[in-house]
Amino acid sequence: MGTLNVEALSFRYPGRGETVLDRVTLEIPAGGIFGLLGPNGAGKTTLISIFAGQLRGATGSIRAGVEPLEALRRRRPHSLGLVPQEYAFYPMLTCAENLRFFGAVQGLAGARLKERIAAAAGFARIESALARRAGRLSGGLKRRLNLAIGLLGEPEILLLDEPTVGVDPQSRAFLLESIRSLAGAGRTIVYTSHYMEEIEAICDRVAIIDHGRVLVSGALSDVTRDGSGLQELFMRLTHRSLRD
Amino acid sequence: MRRLLALWEKECLALSRDVLGLAVLFLMPAAFIVVMSLALSDVFKGGAARQAEFAVIAADPKLADSLERNLAGDGFRSAPAPADEAAARDGVRRGTPSLVLVVPRDFERALSAPFDARDAPPKLTLLADPVLPPTQLLAFRQRVLGVTLSLRVAAMMRRAGIAANADAFDLKRAATLSVETIGGSGRPSSVQQNVPAWLIFGMFFVVMPISSLFVVERREGTLARLVSLRVPFSMLLLGKVGPYFVVNLAQAVLMLLAGRTLVPWFGGETLAFPARWDLLAAVTACTSFAAIGWGLLVAVCSRTLEQATVIGGVGNILAAAVGGIMVPRFVMPEAMQKLSEVSPMAWALDAFHAVILRGGGAADIAAPCAKLLALATALFAAALWVHYRRRVLTSAQ
Q1: Least CB-CB distance to B13: which of A13, A80, A97?
Q2: What ipTM does the predicted assembly reach?
Q3: What is the DSSP letter of A133?
Q4: Cβ of B5 and A105 within 8 Å?
Q5: A30-74: per-residue pLDDT in tens?
Q6: In Å, how far are A48, A80, A105, A205, B147 from A69, measured between CA atoms?
Q7: Is B394 part of the contact surface with chain A (CB cutoff 8 Å)?
Q8: What whole-number distance in Å separates Cα of residue A210 and Cα of residue B154?
Q9: Which of B300, B310, B316 is closest to B202 using CA atoms?
Q10: I want to staple B127 with a disulfide (CB 3.0 to 4.6 A). Which of A47, A216, B100, B120 is the partner?
Q11: Contact flag B229-A88 (C-beta cutoff 8 Å)
């Protein structure tokens, strides 16, 4: 699939004056994990939503290799997987029913669907919870189910929007380890988080955005070359004043 | 098609675990059917079925007896006469009897006097219980005047020396009048009114589970995830149509059975099944599409569960109140009857009555069904329009 190239991407919500993304330019190579950082309201989720095809009206371009991302999604609808920060599944359905449903809407059926459910459930280690209602799971299991659903279609581009929010340290460590293992094999992973140590632990490249603009972007080792940690760099670039 | 089936299966599973939603869809209309069919059974039977007691106070026991005999029948039953007018007033105040006819002492003599148009007619007083339905009071009043007229005619004939059999002046023997209602009984019985009415009410309550699940889907990001999987929004809406159409059909079957078995089991009358099941199915389908369209629009317009509950619930109750579900339209004043024509529930009720009550054909249900289908199409289009206008999410196509 190749590198995900974002060029001069701008967006504003209809009816609102402010520009949420202002000529954002990023290079997100395949085979690694790209950390997207920014304070609340910086534009991270908007950027992820545009990647996922949920928002239209953005100007600029997004290319997957040489092909526009939208054309790739049209050609291979399940080339992109989204793991949103919300628990984007049905709490009244069991884990197995959720996986079956999200697999089926991606066109999976029969043995292939069963195989993908088993693989995704195994990867997220939720096999023992398959028969349980999703709404009654612990926070960690819910996050793992959320991840498993995002992996059902074996996406080439995986968008992870704060996937570890509200989980205990054990589940968090497991999720980070699992996400790390997903990198490679030509897969592009975009990871947003407020936890700097997570980004430092699993990402190869990072970008810090604020007020819709890219403040810094590059390999993690390059942006922290002056010896300051990511946390210090983030606070220096985005200032310390409260945002919400 | 596979994706649509998956959406239908998900919707069915979600609904099957929504106990409150199922209760609203099935128990609520069934309970209303039983309770309202029994509670309103007398109202729907009309004056003839509601026996009212009356008494006659007259100085002449023979005249009192004659009046009692002639006035009794057709929903009026004679009761022992009170001792005097004061006792009669006390009795009527308590509602026993409901009516007392007070005949003055010189009444018969006034009747027998030669008729002179310039003279005031003989005076009678009728004491009436205020809770008596106005139509029943009017019927008794006409009955009294009819009997009085027959007494006057008999007196005139006697004066003229014409012999006549007393039975000739008996109102009940004046003629054999048979009332033939064209196209069934015309006015519904209690069970004929309440089964389709509360079935329609229950069908429109699919707005609750449709909109509440939709709000949860949007709030939890599930909708966003489905859009990112390139599931078109129109398909997401269609994914709700199939399951709720089946739910509406199940409601129709169960509510008809409730009218057939449950209501008589509690002592009410039995619902007569219609002759044309195909027409009943068509009416049910059209009502279902309108109800689901309403549910989809409320779902798309509501941002919270509270909004969905208020818009959907209040909208349904208003449409039911105006549309003759809660209060039959034939008892409404003319202005309200005209207003009721704007309620989709009234259109549905008209169509159900055409099939269940009047034994009508396809032509009789064509207009209300066309209106329901047009409304369903408009509501579905409005749901899509509101969605795209708000740009909450974008279409993935």
Answers
A1: A97
A2: 0.86
A3: B
A4: no
A5: 888 999 988 888 888 889 888 888 887 888 999 988 888 888 888
A6: 13, 9, 21, 20, 93
A7: yes
A8: 106
A9: B316
A10: B100
A11: no
